[in-house]
Amino acid sequence: KYDQAADYLNKLVEMDPNYVRTHTYLATVDYTMGRYEDALNETEKRVVLQGEMSTEEIANGKRELLDALRAGGPKGYWSKILEFTMQDIKKGKDVSALNLAHIYAELGQKAEAFKWLEKAHENDESDMAWLKVSPEWDKIRDDPRFGEMLRKLKLSE
Fold first, then answer.
1. Where does residue 68 rank: exposed (0-12), middle (13-18), buried (19+ CB within 10 A)?
2. How do the pLDDT tens digits run along the chain, 157 residues long?
3. How far is CA 84 from the centre of its chain?
4. Fewest Cβ atoms nearer than 10 Å: which of 43, 45, 74, 138?
5. Which residues contact 127 (CB under 8 A, 6 or more apart)?
6. What does pTM read for this prediction?
7. Alpha-carbon distance 2 to 74, whole Å?
């Protein structure tokens, strides 16, 4: 029911356009629905609100992501996200293992995704609780290792 989720989240944005998490969740819904440009717009709002980057850095990153999307579709988009994430790691920025797992899942690199999910579990990352329900994991949900991870986290039925 992604359309309903987007409608609800857009109403929340109207109520409080400065609440960062709403933009984060809306971006997730957008890219799950294949609306990558909308997802980028929501991500841009989040980054601006958090003051993570300069306006120029945001514009350049967005342009690069749109170029990657146009040239390579979703795979190009996620490859560019991975490239940016690796640059962040080289700069010493803290990147969660769960974030890397998600990127690799989107790229269809299941072995890498599960390697990073395991690290996230070892690190006891708090967002692991969303693993069972978040659409971010739909691309690897049918893999038996996903069920094993849910059991480790005591999230299986």
1. buried
2. 889 999 999 999 999 999 999 999 999 999 889 999 999 999 999 989 998 788 888 889 999 999 999 999 999 999 999 999 999 999 999 999 999 999 999 999 999 999 999 999 999 888 888 889 888 899 999 999 999 999 999 887 5
3. 13
4. 138
5. 96, 98, 120
6. 0.87
7. 18
